[in-house]
Structure formats: C-alpha cells, structure tokens
Amino acid sequence: SQELEQSPQSLIVQEGKNLTINCTSSKTLYGLYWYKQKYGEGLIFLMMLQKGGEEKSHEKITAKLDEKKQQSSLHITASQPSHAGIYLCGADGSGNTGKLIFGQGTTLQVKP
Amino acid sequence: GAVVSQHPSRVICKSGTSVKIECRSLDFQATTMFWYRQFPKQSLMLMATSNEGSKATYEQGVEKDKFLINHASLTLSTLTVTSAHPEDSSFYICSARARTGPRGQYFGPGTRLTVT
User: Fold this and answer.
1) Do the Cβ atoms of B46 and A99 come within 8 Å?
2) Mean pLDDT by groups of 10 residues along chain B of 116 residues
3) Could you give the CA distance from residue A48 to residue A90 in angstroms, rounded to a whole number?
C-alpha cells in the first residue's frame, strides 16, 4: 500500500524566514494535495498538483511536484504567524478515485 | 466557492446512543463524499466513500453496521455512529469532490464526538 512520509515532523521558525516541507511517496502519485489544519479544525485546501514538474503558487506558498511524481515540496516565503498550523500532504494513489491517504503532518510554529 | 459544512461541530452523547453527523457541499454538487476519522495528534484515516444513490464502500477494518452512511442527494451525506462507545470518541471530517470542474477535494470543518 502507498505511504506518504513528511519531513520534518515539526518546525519552529522566526517570522520572516523561509521554510520547506517535504512529502515523499512510496509510489507514483496520481494527485498530490496540500492542506493546512489548525488543531481540532477542518482542513483548508491549499493546492493540488497532478503533473510531473508542476509548480503552483498562492500568495507566499509554493508547491512543487517532481518529474517522477513521487516527491512534493511546500515552500513558504517570509513566514508569518498566520502560517502556523499543521500541514498535511494527501495523495490519491489509487488512480483518481478521490480516496486520499495522508502523511503524518508537519507542525509549523512561527515565532514573532 | 467550494465550501463544505458539517453539523454538528461538537456533540457529546452517552454510551449506547446513536449520533448523526451531516456533511453538506454548499455551493457545488458532489457525487462522491468521503468520511475520515482523526485521533488526537494523528493524521486522517479514510473510513468510507459515500456515493450518491448507491451504497457506501468501507475501508478495511471499518464496521459498516456501526458507521451507517447515507448519501441522499448530490449535496448531502450523513454518517450515523450507532450504539456509540467511548472508543468512538474522535474527530470526524468529511470531504467532498466536485462533480465537474477541477477535481479538488474540499473538507468540512469536522465534528468532535465525545462519548461518555
């Protein structure tokens, strides 16, 4: 079965610093989703990547999917306290069925 | 756009009772909705896939008689936890996949179930 490994598991950065979160899959990804979650709340959809080499940006967050479609990275530029939360990558590994499996999450703290 | 709501947001019930959780796609139609469960400080685990007009499909290890799913329309799916026990206490989150357009998957705000 497919597994997603996120790194790091937790991250503390100073406000204004850049950071990167990685998501590695044991199998080829058919679709890779990035979400943000505050503890005890729902998931906020950030981006979806489907094509090898694809890159998308929204405000200060950029997500990339490598050419082999087995690794994705989420990069935050000039982090702010509002970026704090849990970042989850999810993958549709079973051929676009919509069934997502998730990485274990990366907890981000941004110190003012 | 792409808003998914859940109701209730929190529920406390006594052991042995049943609880119904609603998941609605507010501004799009969703032929498929998914139910996830999340334990404290853990990631989401898919429980079942809910298809409009047909029976839900359950992931391995999920009791279909305990977690009843009904997908009555293109905008509503319900999860009923029957004869709830304290070990069913968890955070339940639904997601909906748009029928047309970009196939993003959007999540509801979650329902915190506590069984006493």
Assistant:
1) yes
2) 90 97 92 91 90 88 94 91 96 86 79 96
3) 9
